[in-house]
Specification:
The chain is about 85% helix and about 0% strand. The protein is mostly helical. α3 (about 50-80) packs antiparallel against α8, α4 (about 85-100) packs across α6 (about 115-140) and α9 runs antiparallel to α10 (about 215-240). It is elongated.
Length: about 250
């Protein structure tokens, strides 16, 4: 009988049980660390209470991912075709990657105002570098023989990109998207912290100001669930492309 699940189960149960005991017995102040059972109840009931905020975060994540994927692939293909342009924009690209998100928050608030635009922009900035880099590297790995075959059959540059180069680079593109999806989520939530009237990030700030820590932890738990769901989904999609190449 396979008992590998037992240590994993204990690894989950013991910390939560200790959390419950510490809060119930006063070892930790229940205002700052409510009982785990109370937090769990809030995890279950929170979506019904503030479903517009869940929809707001979901909308911002979807839009950020779509724009990150599309823009990242286009820019990556362009950079792969021009070493000079890659050298020119490469330093700027990694500057955006290394700079803290809060550096750009004020700029987006001033230019876009409070609303979904700020979380979406921060989400794109957080994840697009990975998609650009993976697309660029994937395109450069496409065999010249494959491209030459397309030219022999009369394919123009756009057809080469859409029908040969990009499909051949799909595994690398998916790898970049899988890495970037977590960063996109972080960018969206940070944007909601500072410049949004709704969303899970906004709820964390709101409930934190009210010292309603049970709901704070419940909102955090839903963010974690969302991250796990996105990463699992993109990991499965990536695995389906790992061994696939056009012939």
């Amino acid at each position: 009988m396979n008992r590998r699940w037992i240590p994993r189960l204990l690894g989950l149960v013991i910390p939560f049980l200790a959390w419950e005991v510490a809060s119930r017995t006063g070892l930790m102040h229940p205002v700052f660390l409510p009982p785990f059972s109370t937090v769990l109840w809030q995890v279950v009931t929170l979506p019904g209470e503030v479903w517009p905020d869940f929809l707001s975060t979901g909308f911002e994540i979807v839009v950020s991912l779509l724009l990150t994927g599309f823009s990242g692939v286009v820019i990556g293909v362009v950079l792969a075709q021009s070493e000079k342009l890659d050298a020119l924009l490469g330093a700027l690209m990694w500057f955006f990657y290394a700079a803290p998100l809060v550096v750009f928050t004020t700029f987006f608030i001033v230019t876009l105002g409070v609303g979904p635009g700020v979380p979406i922009c921060l989400g794109i900035m957080s994840g697009i570098v990975f998609v650009i880099a993976s697309t660029r590297d994937g395109v450069r790995e496409v065999g010249k023989d494959l491209v030459n075959v397309g030219r022999v059959f009369g394919a123009n540059p756009l057809e080469l990109a859409l029908r040969i180069v990009v499909p051949a680079a799909v595994p690398m593109i998916m790898a970049g998207l899988r890495i970037g999806v977590g960063r996109v989520l972080v960018g969206v939530i940070v944007g909601e912290f500072f410049a949004s009237g709704g969303g899970l990030g906004y709820l964390i700030v709101r409930y934190g100001n009210e010292l309603d820590m049970a709901r704070v932890y419940a909102a955090v738990a839903w963010i974690v669930f969302t991250s796990i769901l996105l990463n699992t989904g993109f990991a499965r999609i990536e695995r389906s492309f790992v061994t696939w190449r056009p012939v």
